[in-house]
Structure formats: C-alpha cells, structure tokens
Amino acid sequence: MNPETTQTADGVASRLSVSSSLSSLGVIRTFIRNVCKSSPLLDVDSEIFTKELAELELGTTEAVSNIMRHGFEGLPEGPLNLECNVKADGQFVLNLAHKGRYFQANASEPSAISFPQEGGMGLYLISRCVDSVNYVIRPDGTNEIQLKKNMTLNRKGNRNE
Fold first, then answer.
1. Are the beta carbons of 146 and 95 closer than 8 angstroms?
2. Which residue of 31, 70, 78, 138 is 20 to 30 Å from 24, comparing CA positions?
3. Of 93, 73, 89, 77, whose CA–CA distance to 32 is shortest?
4. pLDDT tens figures, 47-66
C-alpha cells in the first residue's frame, strides 16, 4: 500500500492500490490529503484550501464506500486502484478503478435530500463535493469513476523552490 508518485507534463501523478475493504478508507483519506498538501501548486495555507480539501475527502470517501459496499457486494474483496493528478491549473483529478460491478448514475443531477434520512445520500454528497463525476468502463472491463475538483492555486510561487 505504498503510494507511487511521478512527475507528469502537466503536474504530479500519484498512485495507490488498496483492498476493497471499508478498513482502507482511512488510508485513502490520508493519501488524498498528503497528495494535496505536498503539491507546490496548491495554496495549502489558505482557509479556502482547508474547505476544498474537506470537500474532496468527503466526496472521495463517499465514492469509495459506494464501490466497496455496492460494487463488491457479494463478491470477494478485490483491489481498488487510485490515481490522482494535481494539474498545473489546480485541478485535482482522481481515478478510482476496480473490477467490481459497474454503476452508472442518472444523467440528471441528484435531487435534494430531505432529512432525516439514513442512506441513499452518497451520490448527492459526491455531486456537491466535487466539480464533476464520470463513470467509465475500460476496454479490459475495469470500472472507473473519475472525480474532478478545482483547487486554489498557490499564487506566491512554488513552495518547494
């Protein structure tokens, strides 16, 4: 479960592979947090960054728990592969790839929820926490959910220089 990080033409890419067990959620949140906080492109000292990161972590947690609970329901645990990229324009892109069951959300935006309600709020929360969500089946049969979130850029220059 050691993350792998590489420099790309338009930012930094990091990869992590975990088990599709709910016990992996803490590792995944730490991975997302560390990727964002270590990026010299993002303004990690701003209050807005703290809010953006909390939203990103919540959206990711909801998407991953949906994969674990529904994609692998009745199936043996399998690998969940995460690849995230902090692009030069501040966009955080997270690809969640798995071999569980495919899920396609309705094309329409999830409707507002009413309280109190137990369960069924994941898609609504995800849609409120990230800027876009895409569902894809790769040619090899792997299911992928892509989350994108625009983050605040570090306007003071590269923190690592």
1. yes
2. 138
3. 93
4. 999 999 999 999 999 999 99
Distances (CA, A) of 52 to 23, 42, 55, 87: 24, 11, 5, 15
CATH no., domain 4-150:
3.30.565.10
Burial class (CB in 10 A: 0-12, 13-18, 19+), 98: buried
Separation CA 141–CA 152 (nearest Å): 35
Residue 3 one-letter amino acid: P
Strand 11-19: give its sheet, edge to edge.
Answer: 4-8, 11-19, 79-87, 91-98, 143-150, 132-137
Domain boundaries, the chain: 4-150
List pLDDT tens digits, range 100-144. Answer: 988 766 544 555 555 555 566 788 899 999 999 999 999 999 999
Q: What is the mean pLDDT of residues 70-94?
A: 90
Apex CA 41: angle with CA 16 and CA 80, to 5°? 15
- The two three-digit tokens of residue 41, written as one number: 């492109």
